[in-house]
Amino acid sequence: MSRPGTGGAGAPAVVFDGVRVVRERRTILDVPRLALPADAVTVLFGPNGGGKTTMLRLIAGLERPDAGVVRLAAGAGGRRDGVAYGFQEPVFLRGTVRMNLELGLTLRKVPPMERVARVRAAADECGIGHLLERDARTLSVGEAQRANLARALALGAPITLLDEPLAAFDRVGRVAFLDELAVLLRRRAGTVVLVTHDREEALRLGDHMVVLVAGRVRAAGPLRAVLERPPDPETAELLGYTVVVDGRGVTLGIPPGALRIPRGAVPLAPGARCFRFRVERVLEVGLETRVRGRILTPAGEVATEIALLAGDVPPVPGEVLEVSAAGCVAIGS
Amino acid sequence: MRDLLAAFARAFDLLASGDPALYTIMARTLVVSGAATLLALLAGVPIGYLLARRRFAGHTLLLGLVNTGMGLPPVVVGLFVWLVLARSGPLGDLDLIYTRRAMVLAQFIIALPLVVGFTVTSLRALPERLPDLLRTLGARRWRMLWLLAREARLGLLAAVMAGFGAVVSEVGASMTVGGNLERSTRVLTTAIVTETGRGDVPLALALGLILLVLAFAVNLVLTWAQTRGSR
Description:
In chain A, the strands form 4 sheets. Chain A has a 6-stranded mixed beta sheet with strand order 5-6-7-3-8-9, with helices on both faces. A 5-stranded antiparallel beta sheet of chain A has the order 12-16-13-14-15, with no helix packed on it. Chain A is globular, with a radius of gyration of 23 Å. By secondary structure, chain A is of the alpha+beta class. Chain A has 9 helices and 17 strands. In chain B, about 80% of the residues lie in helices and about 0% in strands. Chain B is built from 11 helices and no strands. Chain B is globular and about 60 Å long. Chain B starts with a helix and ends with a helix.
């Protein structure tokens, strides 16, 4: 589900040009050239410490690059009015939720009536409309995170930056809010740049994806294109693939959850690949049974896990099976 | 005990009599110490902000100086200011020695490290991301400083109390740079010293009690504001 007519075409919302950031003699970000599309949700994805938050801070003007420049689209209206930032940890000033949500609008000289309407709309969208008169410092973690998001969205800025908006939620709250956030981001106009290290969040929320590892962009483009053509094994593993080198020396990515233990005479799916798999452990995880083991190829062994389907007979540790996977991609091709 | 009771009675009589000389000294005390505290706040809060939120060359040295200054002996400050403002001193031409402005300057120097020190502590207690948040919401430099000060108001009120408490009760600096001139620079503390020297201990004690009541009244107002601010 992507926003209608979003991203790709037209002028980009943000351009990184020859940007380098050095901290304590260590390069933490090195982006020769990167354009983030306007009117789309771009996910900055990668492991912690990869430079994702630094990119957001550069866009917001909270940091300056040691080299290069970060340009915003002409229509963004400058960093002060053009950018809204939802920080990872919700921070509130003394006062009610309403006062906190209104502060940015007051500072941006939005007329009082419009302020009230925008705060109400953003609070309702984020499910905190009933909490507006509460002391902001008494909110629960989940409520605070919603209020944090509402404060950023209320600004109605052309570019909205969200840093790990789901990080503070517990598992149940995260699943529920992920659904809401996906709908909410698609309903709103404007450009969103969202940081996450969680693959599922990235896939659910993004139209475009930038994969950042150790301060360098490994892949960038429409979400599907990045997913279907991971440029290198490390990026593929980050995206959830199990990476193996087959008998012909081709590096393959097995999509997450694609490995299956074939049942009897059931034919393989078209294009499916077969691998030898040595069982190491059989794990009962709640109602699910998972088989942990290693894929065996002439180039070596790769650890992975296969979820058994209902009715599958659990294998025995030490057993070597023939397993199959559909949808494998060639990496770096 | 009898002396103390007599002092209470004398203090009450003095206040009730409406003696203009006494009320002038009380007002002068409040104005001089109030002005010094206000100036210390105006200078001390931005300095405290820089020390709390920025790292720069000499940061640790400056913080060490501030911490040392929090225990600065008033009489030493008075001596230093006297040397600078005395007729033969580098700023002697300004003709400030033995004036209320000289007393304000000396008391400002005493109060400044206290205000800076308390400001640093209270700003460091704020969430680290708060300045970034305010910037992204659209606050420019002075508005941000104001909003941060509002957030740290409990600590800043403590800074006012500490600063005012220190200067309203000091005698060494006021005596040295003010000269304790009866019609222009005499304040409650220097008046106490004068009356003790004259042997009028009950009057000195009564003035001491009035000073305590004055300091208590100011601190009561600040404490009330602090209690309200914590809600």
